[in-house]
């Protein structure tokens, strides 16, 4: 049996009764978010990394490194006793410092030096500047390429742990297990990067680098654009669905499959199918609200912006889902698995709609972003992922301090490790599947019918 991750075997209990822990952690996380945003990202602040691609690249790679630490390496080389006995604040500082240090090694050592100086020029801003690219664009192009690699890694790294259950290395111990998963997922990420994004980088330069990449890209005809945002859309949806699968869905419905290898393969590719379907649906929803996209235009009428916005809408959904999982213990737990998952999904979507509206109405007032729905400098994924990173530091690295603490042995709750239970394929099971399928199809057409009306009500900027 695979040893549970530290995040799965630990038990957190409230320090205070009632809603006070939720309120404390919400205030704590938002305070850390705003202070760190002002220091690192805000265009009016100190470091001003919201250029926007430099700040975006930092967001994505910090997220990836935290996933490596918590999910792939299971906090190795730190022992379980250190994780349990170290004060949450000190632990948070040490693990966050380690995250930043590893990120700088990956950025400066692997991308900008090894790849940028000896293989592919666009990974190094210094190399691009020497070739005659204006310094600002050299930095942006390089950051864009590096963050696109991070977008893939933030999907595949957790997917191999939560969907493939770390197989075939699940029985190994750390650090062999961690390095095996890291090397394999990194290898797959390289392949996906070259297929999905290398052509995008090649067309940024004049003339297009047709001898080094496929130009125009293979997705041009059916995506309506040569821009790599088409791949950003479905890959971002993959990232979001992985975490829906792991958190508020509790790996349902794939957890019903008893045979391990079938369950793992079905989970891994099922996540991709769901994500691709979601990305096309969100693109279609924009056409229902704003009309057909027009190639050659800019902003919200342009196909490349709409594909980007698919990924942005997915992140708006992810944040309330993670908040519900971290601080509200998934919110709905009093019903059967199917009803719990359904109610959590509906609640997280409602939270996403509210967050979406509030963000575009107010973000420019306190984040230093540009006012406007589709402004070229408006990248909601950056502050949203930055906030998610702060939440992960609080929940993963600090055990939910200050509102929560690790449970003592005498009050320990059952380990919340995912259980895979056999489902009897009875007549009621098949009736449930048939009824659920029909209800899902009916709900789809109802939503498609209502979206133009809902979209009109949510149009924020005229």
From TrEMBL:
The chain crosses the membrane at residues 20-40, 52-73, 93-115, 136-161, 181-205, 226-245, 265-285, 306-326, 338-359, 379-397, 441-461. The keyword Zinc-finger does not apply. It comes from the Bacteria. Keywords: Membrane, Transmembrane, Transmembrane helix. This is Amino acid transporter, AAT family.
């Amino acid at each position: 049996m695979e040893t549970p991750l530290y995040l799965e075997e630990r038990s957190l209990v409230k320090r205070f009764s009632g809603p006070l822990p939720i309120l404390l952690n919400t205030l704590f996380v938002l305070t850390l978010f705003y202070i760190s945003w002002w220091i690192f990202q805000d265009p009016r602040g100190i470091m001003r990394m919201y250029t926007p691609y430099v700040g975006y690249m930092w967001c994505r790679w910090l997220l990836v490194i935290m996933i490596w630490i918590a999910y792939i390496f299971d906090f190795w080389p730190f022992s379980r006793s250190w994780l349990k006995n170290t004060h949450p604040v000190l632990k948070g500082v040490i693990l966050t410092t380690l995250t930043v240090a590893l990120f700088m090694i990956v950025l400066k050592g692997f991308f900008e030096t090894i790849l940028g100086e000896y293989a592919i020029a666009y990974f190094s801003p210094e190399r691009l500047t020497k070739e005659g690219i204006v310094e600002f664009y050299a930095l942006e192009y390089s950051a864009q390429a590096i963050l696109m690699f991070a977008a893939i890694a933030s999907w595949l790294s957790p997917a191999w742990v939560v969907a493939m259950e770390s197989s075939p290395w699940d029985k190994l111990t750390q650090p062999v297990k961690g390095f095996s998963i890291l090397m394999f997922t990194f290898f797959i990420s390289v392949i996906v990067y070259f297929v999905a994004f290398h052509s995008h980088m090649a067309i940024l330069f004049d003339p297009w680098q047709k001898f080094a990449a496929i130009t125009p890209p293979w997705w041009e005809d059916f995506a309506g654009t040569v821009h790599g945002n088409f791949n950003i859309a479905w890959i971002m949806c993959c990232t979001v669905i992985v975490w829906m699968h792991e958190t508020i869905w509790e790996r349902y419905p794939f957890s019903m499959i008893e045979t391990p290898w079938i369950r793992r393969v079905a989970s891994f590719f099922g996540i991709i199918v769901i994500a691709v379907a979601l990305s096309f649906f969100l693109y279609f929803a924009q056409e229902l609200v704003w009309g057909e996209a027009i190639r050659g235009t800019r902003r919200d009428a342009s196909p490349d912006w709409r594909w980007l916005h698919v990924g942005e809408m997915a992140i708006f959904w992810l944040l309330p889902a993670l908040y519900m999982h971290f601080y509200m213990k998934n919110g709905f737990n009093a019903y059967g698995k199917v009803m719990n998952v359904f109610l959590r999904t509906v609640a997280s979507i409602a939270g996403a709609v509210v967050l979406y509206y509030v963000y575009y109405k107010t973000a420019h007032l306190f984040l230093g972003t540009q006012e406007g729905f589709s402004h070229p400098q408006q990248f909601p994924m950056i502050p949203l992922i930055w906030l998610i990173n702060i939440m992960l530091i609080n929940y993963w690295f600090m055990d939910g301090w200050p509102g929560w603490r690790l449970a003592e042995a005498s009050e320990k709750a059952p380990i919340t490790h995912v259980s895979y239970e056999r489902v009897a394929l009875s007549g009621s099971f098949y009736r449930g599947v048939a009824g659920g399928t029909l209800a899902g199809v009916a709900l789809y057409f109802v939503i498609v019918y209502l979206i133009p009306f809902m979209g009109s009500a949510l149009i924020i900027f005229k």
